[in-house]
Amino acid sequence: MMDLFEASIKKESEPLASRMRPRTLDEYVGQDHILGKGRLLRRAIQLDQLSSVIFYGPPGTGKTTLARVIANTTKSHFSTLNAVLAGLKELEVEINAARERRALHGIKTILFIDEVHRWNKRQQDALLPWVENGTVILIGATTENPYFEVNAALVSRSRIFQLKKLEECDLEKIAKMALSDKERGYGRFRVEFEDGALEHLIDVASGDARSLLNALELAVETSVDSFPPADGTVIYISKETAEESIQKKAVLYDKEGDYHFDVISAFIKSIRGSDPDATLYWLARMVAAGEDPRFIFRRMLISASEDIGLADPDAIRVVEACASAFDRIGLPEGRFHLTEAALYLATTKKSNSTLAFFDALSDVEKEAKDEVPNHLRDDSRDKEGFGHGKGYLYPHSYKDHWVAQQYLPSSLVGKIYYRPGNLGYESRIRDSVIEHRMSQLESINIDDGSEVLTWSPDDKKRDLWLNRAMSQKSAELRRIRDRLYEGVSIPRHANALIINAGTGLLLYPAMKMNPEGSNIAIVRKKEEKDAIAHIAGELDELLRPEVMIDSEYMNALESIEHDISFSLIAARDILIDLEKGKRILSLISQRVKEDTTLLISSSIARRATRVSAFLDGEIKKKAENAESEIYEKSSLSNWEEKDLEALVFSFFPSAQIEYMSLQETRHLDGAVALSWWEKTYSRYLDADEKDSFISALRERDVPFSSKVAIIRLIPEKMKAKVNDEAEKTWHEVQMKTQ
């Protein structure tokens, strides 16, 4: 067992990288995707509500440092083990101590296991029951992918946080902290660098803070005759010294480890992306690291069918021929055959239509196995008894050796699995596939002769309820929501702000996308907050959205911490009143960053069906006159599309605005009619017309139309993806239509 947080060694004798470890979250540099304001992990650490976690990332990215920060923050007892040095005996000691602390003092134990992937299955299994029953809260650190190297049961009970290589700006900040810190670093001296010297250290460190600090320490302490010199001494670091202090980093590639899978993944994705230069780079990286060429050929054979398929049926033949040639020739000349196969795949036409098989397989696995249609059954044994095979049309007896008939089970008629692409060989067969598909659908008349097994008398009350449920406005709101979010995605760790969240229409899609982020919802009234709280009540406290009540939205927006960044801001009907909307958009614009997706839907009251449309006679004329005045005077309806566009573009010139026309059937009852009378029409119609007004509207199903503006501001880096999603949706619609 080793205590990483033991302080018995004097600070002066510790390596700089150890001395400069952050002690608090505020000192921690980088990894903003998991530790930025509002992120799940940051909130858990600050609230001391940490559950079992595994930190995964390359060396020098701050995994152990983050564990130190947690140790300095938590009220729980913090114990450490290093999986290289400790085994079952040391684990048993820690578990017994944790059980005693919990039983006698009610104190939780956080157990940090560095390099947890080094433990074998038996050792990891021994830890599992104590994590499961809460005796210890696990913090594991690993440089290997936990999904491959850590017990699946442990992974399923832990949150996984991936730490990335640090950015150059992060490394520069760490270096300057070390140079300015008088207690732990070199702040007592004046360290100066030749132009490019510090930049060289940062560049070669390649995202590894430990490597940078070790090199900085070597450069500083070897640039003076004896260390430490007197306070205020000038220490000059030349570029030559910097180059000597940090040597070229070794290429990370373990044929049995995570990087092996990462590099082959990059190679295949470069082929899929038709990038021959990247394909050659990753191929060279594998060959230089000693990867088995047969493994590379196997992956290219898979790619030839998965990524090229029928767009170029020759692809698999070329790879197979190159693989056969390699077997006869071997290395080093066989590298030409590796290169030829890789370049052929990277530069030919692409299609992933063979993935259609897995859609079909999914249907087979999920759904009941449908009977084989009678006309497709084998007629060699029981044609006479059961009529199997009756009605089958023999294609070779027809023109072009094809005839329209049903081949799928009846429950799947019209189901589309194979979608031929527009490139290469598939472009030549696409039209015939679509034409055959269309002819088949037109020719099939499904009538399996099933008996009517159940029947119930009409239930008018139930039918009325169903009609109301099916015509609820929420169905139209779902259409609006789906259009707003179409093609949009945000990182799992992103923060989202939902304005006028109601009972959660726009909130829940965001929560589905960002389980490690923070969600803030602004609602107009307490009932809406209570509804969200009720639905979210089953979630872990850390995962619940923060809900604020503000009918005007502006005070709530101003109260949110300004250093919280949002990847998604979504809102509904915040621009009904354009004057108020201007102030709201001003506050929102302060929150919109380069990577923020902004989604707003806004109903246009002026374009909605008016109540007078449901009236007749003299009262209809009076209602129309009243509405002319109402719609001109009210700030909620005295504007039209061009006014909305001018307002939005004044804040967001790159926004896209489109309009949805909605048609629905609404059921009117006495309560709705009375509300309209009391809130609006009583001021314009005579009191003795109240009964006529209400009775004309009561218990009616009426057609209702409305118009909604869909406003979307998509970050540049996401636009291509969103456009691809829209193109895919259009293509699927076309295929289904055809």
Give an overview in words:
By secondary structure, this protein is an alpha/beta fold. The protein folds into five domains: 11-162, P-loop containing nucleotide triphosphate hydrolases (Rossmann fold, 3-Layer(aba) Sandwich), CATH 3.40.50; 187-245, Helicase, Ruva Protein, domain 3, CATH 1.10.8; 258-350, Zinc Finger, Delta Prime, domain 3; 354-443, post-AAA+ oligomerization domain-like (Orthogonal Bundle), CATH 1.10.3710.10; 459-609 and 638-665 and 702-738, Vaccinia Virus protein VP39 (Rossmann fold), CATH 3.40.50. It has 31 helices and 14 strands. It has a seven-stranded mixed beta sheet with strand order 10-9-8-11-12-14-13. A five-stranded parallel beta sheet has the order 2-3-4-1-5, sandwiched between helices. Helix 6 (121-132) links the parallel strand 3 (109-114) and strand 4 (137-142). Residues 5-10, 249-253, 442-473 and 725-738 have low confidence and may be disordered.
